[in-house]
TrEMBL record:
GO terms for biological process: retrograde transport, endosome to Golgi. Pfam families: Vps53_N (PF04100). InterPro entries: Vps53 (IPR039766), Vps53_N (IPR007234). Residues 3-458 form the Vps53 N-terminal domain. This is Vps53 N-terminal domain-containing protein. GO terms for cellular component: cytosol; GARP complex. It comes from the Eukaryota.
Length: 479
């Protein structure tokens, strides 16, 4: 308070002289208040003093705690580095052990497969010596798969020895199969009841070997079948143009007689079809030779009859083996393939058609663009034969059996479809074209004689009552 206020307060508290008697109690009260305030101040000072000391103690404790925390962090970091080093060492040891385990597993697997390969080769050798073709065919597939696992070890002497032994066994099987098939058609099949079954089993072995073995076998079989035909119709008696019809009767009789026997061949081999192709080519060669060796012009009637019979025979073959009217056997063979593989076959076909077309295009420039259709067909046969053969020997395809089966089915089906593209029409009859001049001359001579006769017989008179100037001979000329 300011002085004026203090004076006012005192005058208010002691307005009269009588009221001064209350000064002493007031002073005691004020002193009491002052002591209370002093005590409060003293207590606050003491409390503040104690708080400062405690704050210092707390600050010191916090500093010690931080130091301890930093020490623990350094200790944890050190232990973490030690743990990391330990983990790396452990992982290094684990990796070594893992590699060791992998190598041991590979070694055990290789030794196991090697044992299986040795056993399989020995069993195959026994089967080959005993001509157990059915068992040998399955064993060949197994050995081929086992051999594919040792492609990386082919420089090892033991593997080289086994591969060479397997190669010799395949040659032995091939020679046995060819030897057994040489007896087909000689009449032994009627004497030995199990010969046909044995040959049917031998076909399984041929399919398990390289595609070239099947081609060679079928080619040899067709050549052997046509040997007697070649000998018969190259003789002086039947090597004549008027005996042409008997040639076709011979092959049709041969096909009909041996129909049951030739069922030993798998349908996909198309043996009758290939035999007819070879027969047509041989017949064409012989007929060309007959026509070229004629000392005089051929008789027109004989020439036309031979041509007519040839055209009829070609039409029969086209109906029997043609794409539009295949035989029931071939038709069933195609129906069994189903539509599920059509896309795969189409894709594979397009891919290799492009490659072959590019290859043939480069060659056509060098050879003036003259390419035989048969060369293209043989190119497809070679391509898909290689796919089929490679599919049996590539390890990754055997891991994916579906892929292998799809390629095998696509190759076989496409080869089967490709076979039907051969055109029988004109394969023999086209050789008659250079010698048809005698027919043209005869027709021309006949036409001129008829014209001359009509001219001589014509009266050149016009009938009365007609409105057109038409000669009567003109009607005969048009007919």
């Amino acid at each position: 308070m300011d002085k004026s206020s203090a004076l006012d307060y005192i005058n208010q508290m002691f307005p009269t002289e009588a009221s001064l008697s209350g000064v002493e109690p007031l002073m005691q009260k004020i002193h009491s208040e002052i002591r209370r305030v002093d005590a409060g101040i003293l207590a606050a000072v003491r409390q503040q003093s104690n708080s400062g000391t405690k704050a210092k103690e707390d600050l010191a404790a916090a500093t010690r705690a931080v130091e301890e925390l930093m020490y623990k962090i350094r200790e944890i970091k050190s232990k973490a580095e030690q743990s990391e080093t330990m983990v790396q060492e452990i992982c290094r040891d684990i990796k070594k052990l893992d590699f060791a385990k992998k190598h041991i597993t590979t070694t055990i697997t290789a030794l196991h497969r090697l044992t299986m390969l040795v056993s399989a080769v020995e069993q195959l050798q026994v089967m080959a010596s005993k001509r157990q073709y059915k068992e040998a065919a399955a064993q060949l597939e197994a050995v081929n798969q086992l051999c594919s696992h040792f492609e990386a070890y082919k420089d090892i002497p033991k593997i080289t020895e086994l591969r060479e032994k397997f190669k010799n066994i395949r040659q032995i099987l091939k020679s046995h199969v060819f030897s057994d098939f040489s007896s087909l058609g000689t009449g032994k099949e009627t004497e030995e009841s199990n010969l046909l079954q044995q040959l049917a089993d031998a076909c399984l072995v041929v399919d398990a070997l390289e595609p070239s073995v099947r081609e060679e076998l079928v080619k040899n079989f067709c050549s052997r079948e046509l040997t007697s035909y070649q000998q018969i119709f190259e003789g002086a008696e039947l090597a004549k143009l008027d005996k042409t019809e008997r040639r076709y009767a011979w092959i049709k009789r041969r096909l009909r007689t041996n129909e049951e026997i030739w069922k030993i061949f798998p349908p996909l081999w198309h043996v009758p079809y290939l035999l007819c192709i070879q027969f047509c080519k041989l017949t064409r060669t012989q007929i060309v030779e007959i026509l070229d060796n004629l000392k005089e012009k051929p008789d027109v009637g004989t020439l036309l009859l031979a041509l007519q019979r040839t055209l009829e025979f070609e039409e029969e073959l086209a109906d029997k083996f043609g794409a539009g009217t295949r035989s029931k056997e071939a038709g069933n063979d195609f129906e069994d393939t189903g539509e599920s593989n059509n896309q795969a076959i189409s894709d594979i076909r397009k891919k290799y058609e492009k490659k072959l077309a590019a290859h043939q295009g480069s060659e056509s420039k060098e050879k003036d663009g003259q390419k035989d259709l048969l060369v293209q067909e043989l190119g497809y046969v070679h391509i898909f034969g290689e796919i089929y053969y490679a599919g049996k020997h590539l390890p990754f395809l055997h891991k994916d059996k579906l892929c292998f089966q799809l390629i095998k089915l696509a190759a076989e089906n496409y080869l089967s479809a490709l076979m039907w593209q051969f055109n029988f029409r004109g394969i023999i009859s086209s050789c008659f074209e250079p010698h048809m001049a005698v027919y043209v001359e005869l027709e021309e001579k006949t036409l001129m004689e008829n014209l001359e006769k009509l001219v001589q017989e014509e009266t050149w008179d016009i009938e009365e009552g007609t409105q057109t100037n038409i000669l009567s001979s003109s009607m005969q000329v048009t007919t």
